[in-house]
């Protein structure tokens, strides 16, 4: 029987847990930060590297490595920004942490700030997350009142401020360079890279952008025995637990904390309780709407970064969207493509035009104007977006299109074969 | 001088304090632009006028054109008044799988208006939303600042009836 492994949800899963600073401290909170203040920042970064943790925001980049890129000895201040934009369709895990155990994430963020030498960290949170914004602000007020934020917390020589910064509705601001422009007070449009944020980020200063969930693991990883335990939760190169957002036609939707050596079949049928109304599984979008779709007979793989990359899709933000045999995948793809057409920032021609063209072609199918030629064209429009744009939104729009056409061609043909 | 006076009146003393607090949290004033615009919009019953945008531009020491660029880029800024209750219905992927589209249609029919519009009595406005980050509890909606989850047409009807009282 597959069960949750609780690192981040350890407190949340206790019904009696009170999400106050007092409750968090009672549960052992801020012990790790205290320990970390006695370590050199380089040692903290080395420990994070040793844990093998990869970012949980979507790209899976090793966090320790990212921190080690931060320019040292710069005359400019360094920044750490928590990415709480969480706008990838299917993803609702960071919200859970921020609403139900905000101090855990904040302790993790404070550890990160110490590691990269940041004295004012910002939490860039999507504007619609009003309840989470409130929850974070309340927790931060508590930390200031307790002396954990501000000047010399716990007798350390370190000083730190944290500020919650609300976005205003734009998916693209989850992309880290667009996020930085937005944080600066501009339209959120991805920047040309290099320079990478570690060299020139927020207001031109060295900056690290890290996902909320990624930061929330820090109190565990830097705690006693954390590195070894963390590595034991998954195969080599896929260490740790991850928060899985399970949605769609499933009996028990929800956010679950799982090891990285659990199979997708077990997640769907054991954790998720199988498909609703006794229906059969048709497919899964495995890692947020930007990932390539999988068919029902592909789910016997471990749900982690490398196994999904091996079958040409991705873990992304660990958001599994499950759909049953009655689902019209052409309509589903239309909805996905509408999303990208709406969210393209318009800087690159292949993305700006391609998302609209593909949406129009899919509409043609639904109107009964499909053809073999159009199916090929749809695939080609997707192909022309891949790797030709400034940021990964172009790829994110192309991958669903190409994979739906490849995996479910008959569902498209059904629309014009009838005639 | 006159213009300056009307602009000063826009922010109440309490809000001006909040604005100053926001400005103090950033290395440069421009960085506070979006949070201050959101505050201004809340002050002005959920939408922004040219007057307000000018005022915020002054606070953040940026040109008005930059403020206009920002306001038109982000979906949460509005240039016309929303209803007293702004119903934001998600129809994105997981919500779409579980009836979000039908929920939106139901809401439009029930209120006899369309997404993007406000009812004649000014009570309700509807907006079709992309993912709200509540996908495991789909379909999700936001009413002003509150989330409602696993919303069915029956729940929506009750909600609307209660708010209409
Ligand atoms: C279009 C697009 C949207 C993204 N949205 C998010 C998001 O909502 N949250 C997030 O943490 N990362 C998002 N990312 C990834 C970020 O650019 C960045 O890689 C991440 O925040 C780094 O944190 P991590 O290393 O902890 O994963 C997005 C990337 C792209 C290309
Ligand atoms: S790929 Fe799309 S979203 Fe990304 S920068 Fe280009 S136009 Fe903007
Ligand atoms: S798709 Fe509706 S909340 Fe995510």
Explain this structure to me?
- The complex is a heterodimer of chains A (419) and B (165).
- Chain A has three domains: 212 residues, Rossmann fold (3-Layer(aba) Sandwich), CATH 3.40.50; 77 residues, Ubiquitin-like (UB roll); 89 residues, NADH-ubiquinone oxidoreductase 51kDa subunit, iron-sulphur binding domain (de novo design (two linked rop proteins), Up-down Bundle).
- Chain A has 18 helices and ten strands.
- Helix content of chain A is 43%, strand content 13%.
- With 165 residues, chain B is an alpha+beta fold.
- Chain B has two domains: 66 residues, Orthogonal Bundle (Arc Repressor Mutant, subunit A), CATH 1.10.10; 80 residues, 3-Layer(aba) Sandwich (Glutaredoxin).
- Helices cover 50% and strands 11% of the residues of chain B.
- Chain B has a four-stranded mixed sheet, with helices on one face.
- In chain B, strand 3 and strand 4 form a beta hairpin.
- The N terminus of chain B is likely disordered.
- Chains A and B meet through strand 4, helix 8, strand 6, strand 10 and helix 14 of A and helix 3, helix 5 and helix 6 of B.
- The complex binds flavin mononucleotide (FMN), iron/sulfur cluster and FE2/S2 (inorganic) cluster.
- The site of FE2/S2 (inorganic) cluster has 12 residues of chain B, from helix 6.
